[in-house]
Specification:
Layout: H1 5-41, H2 47-61, H3 64-72, H4 81-102, E1 110-120, E2 123-131, E3 138-147, E4 150-158, E5 162-163, H5 164-173, H6 182-197
Antiparallel strand pairs: 1-2, 2-3, 3-4, 4-5
Helix pairs in contact: 1-2, 2-4, 3-5, 4-6
């Protein structure tokens, strides 16, 4: 069967889109695998051990630098290099600790990577669901963007619409109002320590 040039181009574009979708979903799949391993390890495994195990999946899935800068907003430019470095370290520790603390028991919860994806500008939104043994599932959509390091999440949408970055921007605003990152760094460090004690 002969295929027209236009049809051949469309087939190539579709194949390229499918590869992009698979590439965008791969870090999310690795993140879900890491979360499932942490749930299986459970609270009998020391928190620090679970943090060390999950950290590579978080690094591979999220563009933490982009997320932090978006959450801090315009005040980022006014921070010193030292404050930016300390804030980035505190934010990373808090982020990993939050995931570990929220996925800490093998209670029958399922983590599902959804087949459907949607393209928003240059981003690909990869859908997942957290399905508890009882009650309604929670949808978590990863907003994936192509970076020099590969596809990374630059935001997460809870139940398809609530931007995690927007929530953090609101939370961070009051702590940054004096132009110093010190109160925000302290808050993130305190929260990470509190999560580790749970």
């Amino acid at each position: 069967m002969r295929v027209s040039r236009r049809a051949a181009v469309l087939l190539l574009l579709a194949a390229g889109a499918a590869r992009a979708d698979e590439a965008a979903a791969a870090p999310v799949r690795a993140m879900l695998t890491g979360l499932a391993a942490g749930m299986k390890a459970g609270q009998a495994t020391p928190f620090a051990t679970r943090v060390a195990a999950l950290r590579p999946a978080v690094w591979g899935c999220f563009d933490l630098a982009a997320i932090l800068q978006a959450a801090v907003g315009p005040r980022w430019a006014g921070l010193s290099t030292a404050q930016k470095s300390d804030l980035a370290a505190a934010f990373e520790a808090f982020t990993v600790a939050t995931w570990v603390a929220n996925f800490n028991a093998d209670d029958g919860t399922r983590l599902e990577l959804l087949a459907e994806q949607r393209v928003v500008g240059e981003d690909v939104v990869v859908g997942t669901r957290v399905v508890p043994p009882s009650g309604d599932p929670t949808r978590l959509d990863y907003v994936m963007r192509k970076t020099p390091e590969g596809w990374r999440a630059v935001d997460m949408l809870v139940d398809g619409s609530i931007s995690r970055v927007a929530v953090q921007r609101s939370d961070f605003r009051a702590l940054l109002k004096e132009g110093s990152a010190t109160p925000l760094i302290a808050m993130l460090q305190d929260k990470a320590a509190e999560l580790a004690r749970q």
